[in-house]
Amino acid sequence: xxxxxxxxxxxxxxxxxxxxxxxxxxxxxxxxxxxxxxxxxxxxxxxxxxxxxxxxxxxxxxxxxxxxxxxxxxxxxxxxxxxxxxxxxxxxxxxxxxxxxxxxxxxxxxxxxxxxxxxxxxxxxxxxxxxxxxxxxxxxxxxxxxxxxxxxxxxxxxxxxxxxxxxxxxxxxxxxxxxxxxxxxxxxxxxxxxxxxxxxxxxxxxxxxxxxxxxxxxxxxxxxx
Length: 225
Known about the structure:
The chain is mainly alpha-helical.
């Protein structure tokens, strides 16, 4: 097998990359990047991919039904991995668009599409009490599934996409107040009796406190920038 020398754009370490490999995972920092950007660009219809990414990205949140059901010590890892695998292709598509041409513009576009779709859903509920309950559900799902799933991808776009979405969410919804945490940090909270989520999410969880085993005795925000 023939190899070529490449540089990881994240940690700047030198890598030996097989000639026929396009998607590369850095052996030093674990970040994913594409080594043949021009070839990758030729293989995709950028505008079609952008349209699809904006359509699919909101489903990371809106396809979650009763996120609390899986948020227990025994079930959270499997529930999270199921959600992550179901949405992996969307995150991968965004990563490719970010890497080969679109940069941060595609991140803003997909985040805007999610905010717009959430607003459409909220407008169908009518009563303020129903909107508030749904927002608490959304906050919980964002904190323990959506943002951790974006970080779990570990691509060049992951940190920026999670930050863009967190900031867009907090600016768009008065009860947002989200922070970021990885799946590993949240899952470790079950052992430490501490979970990295927000006050808004805590309010949501307290509604179910008598019915579920919850790992939360304190709240710590992570990455609120």
